[in-house]
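quick one before i forget lol
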Amino acid sequence: MNRYRDWLDQARGDLTHAANSLSMGDHAWACFAAHQAAAAAVKGLHMNRGQVAWGHSVAVLLRKLPEDLLPERKLLDAAKTLDRHYIPARYPDAHPAGPTQDNYTDAEAREAIARATEILEYCERQSLDN
């Protein structure tokens, strides 16, 4: 059973969680949820094309897509930006000082959500049933 739609639905839910975290002022968690949304979307696209994808780097997941699905550099750069939030958004010792939430800004969270939205939309457009 191919559950790629579940992965895309999960990506949408993660993106909603990111937006909710942003509205609560939890910028670090918004960045992490945005990363999760993008990763789930790309894994869903892999599944849609009959592939299995493992890992947490959105950029690597995008680069492992079949050649006809490889995105433009701009989207790969967006993925690299999101990948920077995977660990530091959750762990205080990834920063020089202070708790994680003190090291993230509203602008960073908004940027992460925008980049994750671009990646999700790309994955939805590339799905075979679209």
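fyi The CA atoms of residues 1 and 106 lie 40 Å apart.
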